[in-house]
């Protein structure tokens, strides 16, 4: 079957490319042709089970990138590496042999997963993603299938188990990041050019499967897997294998969540299959960027993973360029929730297991904001009212309350609101002061100004709550529809 598939891939690649150019030019709402796919999306539309509902309602998550790359902190031999710190092995100024010996110095004396989990909880994270193995292949758990793991470092102990336990204890769901790309494995290939490549890659696939099953056996409280490093041509030929493996993993942990970065479809397409349907439980393509509109999300579940500097995931001791402020990160969080997504902020602890002070400060500032405003984040999502320049709407999936999160205070103190049709504004008040009732001023049908008190000093983004109901009658001022 694998052989058949790889031939098929070659024969059909031009057809697929042709179809894609057609799709790209197909105007919205025009029915398009459907390819018959054996390994495309498993479902059309969102998962509706409880576990996925929990995922959807997280709002804020934490990512942790940690591995032996943290020991170099983005430098080698006195020289500064300007790429992402966890990629330093691919830098021609760092000899690969030197990198591959780093694990012999991996002994993070200050690793305290309970402290990390407490800090994440204080920040308001509801889930976290930990790099069990990044592209270098160093496994942070005791793996039976490789010697390149934490048990052969001076630290000698499992990193992942105590971390899962600590985060579970804080009520933060854990997701296991796993890079399929693995520079440490002899069978790993970028592409399969020869029979020898194909034979070697079969070993690599068996190894990958073994490690994944091992992870799920060792840490069964994990809620999902967060895949990476699946863009190689070799992996894109593995639709049959990946589909079987995904089914096997899902059978091990009911409700397991796997995003769109794992499987390729019959034509080697990832994230979205050749018919444009999402593969996996949520879209995983939002890395260091956010969608701008709800249309950009195609109505799918999604999360965005974000670095504090421009592009550093693992520990880099010398952040250069723009470093995001908590204000910017809070805005990204709110924007994500307003577009039905989760926002995941990355942390890169140093080689000793310390969370750097800049990240600790951001976590504290975000946490302080969340303590006051979390109702606008947790269990909230998209509202179809026209976006306004003052900020973002979110709406509670639990009780329908609407939250206006204000980042730009209008100079006249009036927040413009354009509702959907047949909506009545019942009660409007600041989240921090529910007793202060604000009276909306009708401008025209479905459009209001909400006056906000100007003598109050706003030091951070604030939230106005709108309780509303809908009516069948046209009560909003009785304006007639314009006839054109
Ligand atoms: O190459 C990696 C990168 O180092 C980092 O792990 C990010 C996190 O989403 N993922 C990859 C690129 O997509």
TrEMBL record:
DNA repair recorded as keyword: no
Bilayer-crossing regions: none
Classification via InterPro entries: FUC_metazoa-typ (IPR016286), GH (IPR017853), Glyco_hydro_29 (IPR000933), Glyco_hydro_29_N (IPR057739), Glyco_hydro_b (IPR013780)
GO cellular component: lysosome
Top-level taxon of the source organism: Bacteria
Keywords for this protein: Glycosidase, Hydrolase, Signal
Domain spans labelled Glycoside hydrolase family 29 N-terminal: 46-374
EC number: 3.2.1.51
Glycosyltransferase keyword on record: no
Signal sequence residues: 1-24
MF terms in GO: alpha-L-fucosidase activity
GO biological processes: fucose metabolic process; glycoside catabolic process
Pfam families per UniProt: Alpha_L_fucos
Family: Belongs to the glycosyl hydrolase 29 family.
Physiological role: Alpha-L-fucosidase is responsible for hydrolyzing the alpha-1,6-linked fucose joined to the reducing-end N-acetylglucosamine of the carbohydrate moieties of glycoproteins.
Annotated PANTHER family: ALPHA-L-FUCOSIDASE, ALPHA-L-FUCOSIDASE-RELATED
The protein's name: alpha-L-fucosidase
Species of origin: Algoriphagus zhangzhouensis
Organism phylogeny: Bacteria, Pseudomonadati, Bacteroidota, Cytophagia, Cytophagales
